[in-house]
Amino acid sequence: MNPEPTPFPVELPEVLRAPAMTVGKVTPGSLDDQVLRFPAQGPPLKWYVAIACTSAVATLGMALIGYTFYMGIGAWGNTSPVFWAFDIINFVFWVGIGHAGTLISAILFLLRKRWRNAIARFAEAMTIFAVMCAGIFPLIHVGRPWVAFWLLPYPNQRGLWTNFRSPLLWDVFAVSTYFSVSLMFWYLGLIPDLASLRDRTDSRIRKPIYAILSLGWRGAANHWRHFDKAYILLAGLATGLVLSVHSVVSFDFATSIVPGWHMTIFPPYFVVGAVFAGFAMVLVVLIVVRETMDLKNLITDFHLEVMCKVILGMSCLMGYAYVVEGFTAWYSMNAFLHHTFMNYITGTYGWAGWLTITCNVLLPQLLWFRKCRRSYPWMFLVATAVTVGMWFERFVIIVISLHQDYLPSAWRIYKPTLTDYGILLGSFGIFFTLVLLFARVLPVIATSEMKADLPGAQPRHGAHHE
Amino acid sequence: MNETFAVLGLFDSADALMEAVPKVRALNLGRLEAYTPYPVHGLDRALDQRRSPLAGMVMIMGILGALTALLFQYWISAVDYPIVTGGKAPSSWQAFVPIMFEVMVLFATFTAGLGMLLLLNRLPYFGHPVLQAKAIRGITRDRFALSVEAEETFDPAAARAALEAAGARDIELLPAPARGPWLTADFIQKSLAGIAVACLVSGLVMFAAVKLVPILPPMSHMSDQPRLDPQAESAFFKDGRGMRPPVAGTVARGFMPPGVASEDEAARLVNPLPRTPAVLAHGQAEYRIRCAVCHGALGNGISTLGAAYGAKPANLQAPNFLAYSDGRIYGAIVLGKNAMPSYAADLPEDARWAVVHYVRALQRAQNAKDEDLK
Asked: Architecture of B263-373 per CATH?
């Protein structure tokens, strides 16, 4: 919706004016020319260099996953009592990364935050790739992934059914639903843009591909009214879903009796952490994208600044969650819980606890300063720190809680193997390979959404008639 | 084929389109449709299009999804496979809520997405005249099209004049499509039938592959282990046998060889076990496992297997068996009798004597005298 001309001839002060979403003159035609030219061009050399690196890392990760299939789970450091380690940490981490995309595309859409339009498409794509990375880990964690379909409740010759009272099964449903819904949401938004791509190109190879993918979209008003309705319904559904998915992931922990896991704050705490980590990742990727693809007039400094503010807000919430968690542990008068929480900051892995607090709570406070919200080095520093910090937060929750629980005779120090590190690295390789492919093959900005929001795009009368 | 489908004109802004719509609509020349690069607010009202019924469809399917998930989980957890976990009642519905929610969202999402595309918008449809028009390049970029589409009576010249008067440019005459949308009821029925046939064929092929071609046993991972199966060969031992014979001159625990060689020798033996309820219960259990299939649960020779094998097992209630000494029954168990093989390998020593006690109890129960009641 474009801002109505003010009825008073008053010049509002800058802070009260609606911020410009684009820099310079952007028309629907120029937007198409700028964004939709990438799929038609050959990528530059630096793209080839980048994808060579990421796909090499991805290949390493997949080779190590193959090695794990061959050797069994013994190839990892997991051992009694730390049966959940890198595999589950990585799963929670990657599912969390995905949440920022859904937050941007769904929740900010419902809240009518116009700045989401420019970044929604990329964030949604990152959601899908992050959930794909996340999906790898529970599958390889089960040990015999070729029978992972046993997780699904289907009538079988063994006469067994799955246990519907287990949060691990809820997880199967939550994550697979999340993936399907994200994919549907992403694809629906892509259809009008794919139609634009179809009508721009004369290539004999790309045109039929775009034609099929865009399903013959012709922009009929009759279609748009259903499309708009579907989009807002999906946004509403995805909003509920995104809050439920990481809550369900947190139930994996919260419904158990392990000290440090059995906490009522876990669901909101996990959701906030997920959005926090995801925004940091989106910020890093968008900085690279706007610089290398020359999209600075569409993904403006304003966009980055707003995202920094979201990260700052989430960081404060994380700090609050840490304090409440610590308080709950202290107030419980439970010796086991006291021990676990002291372990978080003073035990063998105490450094991980301090790293988590530094990266997630202390460093993001830099974003209070406008200078840091406008400078790449500071934004990179904070975003990288948040990514590292959020990974280590899951390490703290999982490994430190597990390695010393109720039975001191069962305590053991956990040591990851090189395979563990390699698979973690490989998941980053898979993620960034997919991001690079996406950036060259599909429109990185939702052009039809942007067009509808450009100044003068909507009729001055009509919408406000009745 | 040569009939006109529509007359279509282009505008350069949403404002121009919105101004033109009421002018052309007033002339009532045919069905009006607009084609725009993005949703234009108020256009649906200007074209008098109904509100989208999608929200109602999504709500119904969402509720249906939640109910499906609830019933599915309830039936599995409380009816078909009621295993108690975590001390919860089999029908603990609270635990079903997360999956109900997820399935609700899944149903609702697919209704919203696919319902919008397939049912309401009738996509995919690659043969629509607008897609073949020159105007489509502008429509998906930055221009706005208004088309007057043919109804029963249609005057293309009047439509062209009306559009021109309303300020449209690049007016085109679109011919009727060679064929209609392929997503018709007939097509859907044929596709569903095709999918059903494909499932059937692939199922049969899978069945044949698994059952008739013995090279692909499915899911044999558990049996494929570095372990010695019974009767299997082993390269580890010199004689190549995986199963080891007992060391010469030794006896395994509980496997004392029977000390009797003939019925007469056995007849002299006396039952060493006391007649206690525990011994009788032991004997009853062993009798039911080993003996009852032939001699019958009451020891009267009416057996469940007799008809199948044409054998005539002994009626232990017959007078000659009532007169047997304990030792002779013991001898029959150990040495076998007529068609009955030796049970020495199946029944350890104390079990044999317990069975003898139980046979005596059966005999007495079936031939009870009045004083037994006292």
From this structure: Orthogonal Bundle (1.10)
